[in-house]
Write a structure and sequence with these properties.
Distance between the termini: 20 Å
Order of helices and strands: HHEHHEEHHH
Strand content: 5-15%
Structural class: mainly alpha
Shape: globular
Largest sheet: 3 strands, antiparallel
Number of helices: 7
């Protein structure tokens, strides 16, 4: 079992590095890359807490990136509930996403579509099951 999780962690690290390398190649900080990615794939606008939950980035990192992106004209921060703002891409932000993260999303889709429906379902099912079980067992730490 140990070697299986060593391989799983190696693969997970490789995937994380590939996404980081893609962000660097596109000239984007990781936080901006992931915010663009999530707004394009889950948007069109999301609460800051949703961006934090989906990206896995720290709240302060998301907050700083959102303010930077707003200053640069890539998104608008809109009132949400309480202090929880909503982020929405501007036209400039959409163009930036199309020139960057949308290209990666297209590659992801090509890979996903190369698998059978059974393989697609298995990928989602096993990853969801692992995440839910890990979250449930975290209290044991």
């Amino acid at each position: 079992m140990k070697s299986a999780f060593q391989e799983f962690n190696r693969i997970d690290g490789q995937i994380e590095r590939l996404y980081h390398d893609a962000a660097v190649k596109m000239g984007l900080p990781d936080s901006v890359f992931w915010i663009l990615y999530v707004l394009i794939t889950c948007g069109p606008e999301l609460l800051q807490t949703e961006l934090t939950d989906i990206t896995g980035l720290r709240k302060t990192t998301v907050n700083s990136a959102l303010k930077k992106m707003e200053r640069e004209g890539d998104l608008k921060l809109l009132p949400g509930s309480g202090r929880n703002v909503r982020a929405a891409l501007t036209e400039q932000g959409r163009r930036l996403a199309e020139d960057t993260v949308c290209r990666l999303v297209a590659l992801e889709n090509r890979i996903y579509e190369s698998w059978s429906p059974e393989e697609q379902a298995m990928l989602i099912r096993l990853n969801r099951d692992y995440a839910e079980k890990l979250e449930g067992m975290m209290q044991e730490l």
